[in-house]
Every structure is written in structure tokens, then in C-alpha cells.
Amino acid sequence: MRLVKASKTSDLDVNGALHAICSTGRGRCWHCDRKLPAVEEAISAGWYVQRVDGQRVASIILVCPKCRRKRADSNRKQLLRNLSPSACDAVQ
Ligand SMILES: [Zn+2]
Q: What protein residues have CB closer than 5 angstroms to ion ligand 1?
């Protein structure tokens, strides 16, 4: 198994990172602590790897398919709220 090569661009190789994390056997969802399954399963299920830029170092977090969907939903709601604040004040 090859290790992920550091890339010059900031693009993250999700599959490569999943492989690397799976090989450590310690991958868990950053949000719900769900254990990362075998790499083929993780990729087909939609596990996602996200780069988070910290103050000094960038770290990589794992997001399971469930939390990924949940986050996408809440981001969309947030966006809608920001786009149309008056909709929230509408009298029923
Ligand atoms: Zn999760």
C-alpha cells in the first residue's frame, strides 16, 4: 500500500487519505465518533475527508456519510435563512 504523497496544490486526495487513515485502523468520524469501515466500504458509502486549516497546522478530519448529509442540510438551511431573512418574520 502506498502512502499519500504530499501534493503541491491544496487539493485533497480523498481516496488516498482514506486509504492512509484506514491503514492506521484508527479512523473515526470527527462528528459522531463512528468507526471508519474497510476502505472499499468507506469509499462506496461516501465517507469524506476534509482539510481543516488550523492556526499552525492543517489537520484532516473524517466525516461519515450520515454527518456529511446532516451538515449539508444544515448548511442549506443556514444559507436560505441568510438569503431571505424576511421569510422568517412572515406572519402566519
Ligand atoms: Zn459521523
A: 29, 31-32, 34, 64, 67
